[in-house]
Each structure stands twice: as C-alpha cells, then as structure tokens.
Amino acid sequence: MSGADSITITRPDDWHVHLRDGAMLRDVLPFTARQFARAIVMPNLSPPVTDTASATAYRERIMAALAPGLDFTPLMTCYLTDDTDADDLARGAAGGVFAAAKLYPANATTNSARGVSDIRRIYPVLARMEAEGIVLSVHGEVTDPEVDVFDREAEFIERHLRAIVGDFPQLKVVFEHITTQEAVNFVLASGANVAATITPQHLHINRNAMLVGGIRPHAYCLPVAKRETHRLALRKAATSGHSCFFLGTDSAPHLRAAKESACGCAGIFNAPFALENYCAVFDEEGALDRLENFASLNGAAFYGLPVNQSTVTLERAEVAVPAMLRAAGEEIVPFHAGETLGWRLVP
Ligand code: NCD
Ligand code: ZN
Predict the structure, then answer these.
(1) Where are the domains of the chain?
(2) Is 71 a catalytic residue?
(3) Could you tell me if 201 and 270 are in contact, meaning their C-beta atoms sit under 8 angstroms apart?
(4) Atom of ligand 1 at shortest distance to CA of 221?
(5) CA 120 from centroid of its chain's CA atoms
(6) Residue 110 has what pLDDT?
(7) Is the pLDDT of residue 1 over 50?
C-alpha cells in the first residue's frame, strides 16, 4: 500500500477536539465535520460543562451550528471537578449524553481552574465510572510548580496514572494527547483498558519548532512538544497499528491576538487539515496501510461504538494551507499556516 497515490479508509472520528462555543463554534465546526463522523468534544468551556444538563444544552448548540447535510455526531464529555455528582454523571452516561468524563488537574491548561485539586477526592466518582463502564479521559500533566514543564507528563504517570490504573483496573482510561516515550511505554505496558490519543502536531514537530529562530506561539500547546526522540516514539506508536493508539487532534482554536501575546494561550488550531496531516505522517513512515486502524477503527473499538459505514479518500496532491483564516470575526492561524501539504482529502 505504501507509495500509493490515493487511499480510501472508513470515515474517521476525532477522539479529542475543542469546538468552543458561540461564533467560534460556528466557524470551526465545519472543519471538523468535513473530515470526521464523530468527535469527543472537550468540556473546557467557560464555565465548564460539568453536568448532564449543561452537556445536553451544549450538544444542542453544536447541532444547531451544524450546516444542513453534514453528517456529524458530537460525543459529549463531563468536566470532572472536586464536586462532581456521580449520580448525575451515571445518569448522563446511561442516557446517552456522556461518552466520557475528563480529568483536568486544576490549572493544568486552558480553562482548567475548576479541575480536580486532588485526584483522591474523585476516587468515589472513578469507582462509579469503573462500575458503569464510563471512559475516563485524562489530561496527564502534573501542575507542581517544582516540576519542569517538559517533565510534567512523565511525572504524572509516576505520581498519578499508575495509581489510577492500579486502583481501578476495569476503568477505561484514555491518556490524552501523549507527547513522550514514557507515555508510549506506559500505554503499551498497560492492559486493554488503557489507550492514548496522539495529535498531528506531536507527530510533526518537536520543541525546536517553538523556540528556534524566534518564539513561535502557534507551535505552542499543552502538553508542550518535547525533544525529537519523543516525536519519533510517537510516530512509531501511531503508525504501529496497535489498538491502544488512536486519533485525537486536540484542535484548540484561539484567536491570533490571544496567541501572539506576552502570555499566549496554549492550543494549536489543526482542524482544517488534520486528516491530511496524519496521512502525511503515515505515508512518510511507510504505513499508509495502518492509517485506518489509527484513524477509524481503534478509537471506536475502545469506546465500544460501531465503526462508521461511509468512507473518505485522500489523494497525493498539493494543498496550500492559508496563512490566516477568519473565526468569530477575527483572525486565526491554522497549524502549518502558509505551508504546502502533500495530501488532500477528496471532497
Ligand atoms: C487546550 C485548549 O485550548 O482548550 N489547549 C491545548 O494546548 N491543548 C486545552 C488542552 O487540551 O490542554
Ligand atoms: Zn485538549
């Protein structure tokens, strides 16, 4: 298959995306819906989506923003806090509102101030999730100011994730947007209940992209890109076809002004060409025949959802990424802005 000039795969899903709300939602949603049949929608709005009622309302706003004729299903997540009501979460999951619950360590990333202050505090909720089969989605970084930002993911494994997985062996855990060899090793060494999403940016760039030749805020996201050895480990994991690794873009749109600032926001807006970006990686690694596992099969299997019926085709063709797009009436800079990509999603 490698070396082919086009590839047709089952329509993929995005198992981690930030769609935002209001005018931003309206303008970024078409990019995701163009490529993906379903997406796990992250709940870090302001205020966050912390219960069934607010998730139901958010899902309705997403459906209302969806252009007619687009076949897209948002899968909602519950933002865990110190005060999460396990009964409400269980009802929301049983009622088909929640596909997962998201653990943000408090202050780990954008809009995580109401996240969990001490994981022990949500142990009763995790026990309930384990019993009910509700997927736990984890932003795996410690927030301890003593820990170097490049070490925060690896440290989270040792301080927290090993304990969670050990204490709740039946709990399904998605280690989101992994960025390190340590995370790859941890997931591979865990059982079938532990999986990880991998973003396009962490397959494409290392930390030099952010810091060499000037500081480049559009290459900054959390977890921050690491050194090259880690990027290579992620590419090997994603293209292995192994069922524990699947596609999650972590597309996280922020307006240009909020990124190009003395204190720029974390997040890379990769939704416009996410699939093209992943396809290029699989092509470069001689693994186009495993793109479907990563993009369309592994995530659905882990979440216990049916595989999509339709297909998408990508072809080898030059695609120019605009230097700038408009969102919410302002400028927004996409991943790979101004560059030319080698794969195109056939409309
Ligand atoms: C995300 C955002 O902006 O919502 N930012 C990011 O850098 N990935 C939050 C997150 O997933 O950490
Ligand atoms: Zn995210």
Answers:
(1) 12-307
(2) no
(3) yes
(4) 7
(5) 25
(6) 84
(7) no
The predicted-structure confidence for 215-274, as pLDDT tens digits, reads as follows 999 999 999 999 999 999 999 999 999 999 999 999 999 999 999 999 999 999 999 999
Give 136 Cα–ligand 2 centroid separation in angstroms: 14
> Ligand 1 pocket check: which of 18, 104, 198 to mutate, most ligand atoms within 8 Å of Cβ?
18
pLDDT of residue 109: 86
pLDDT single digits (tens) 71-123: 999 999 999 999 999 999 999 999 999 999 999 999 998 899 999 999 999 99
Strand 325-327 to 330-332 pairing = antiparallel
Q: What is the pLDDT of residues 158-192, one digit of tens each?
A: 999 999 999 999 999 999 999 999 999 999 999 99
> What pTM did the predictor assign?
0.98
Beta strands in 47-132 (DSSP E): 73-79, 98-103
Please tell me which residue in 13, 51, 250, 283 is annotated as part of the active site: 250
Dihedral over alpha carbons 177, 180, 181, 186 (to 10 degrees): -60
Are 70 and 30 within 8 A, CB to CB?
yes
How remote is the CA of residue 3 from the centroid of ligand 2, in Å?
32
Pick the CATH number of 12-307 from 3.20.20.140, 3.40.50.300, 3.30.565.10, 1.10.940.10: 3.20.20.140
What protein residues have CB closer than 5 angstroms to ion ligand 2? 250
* Total count of residues recorded for the chain: 347
DSSP 8-state code for residue 243:
T
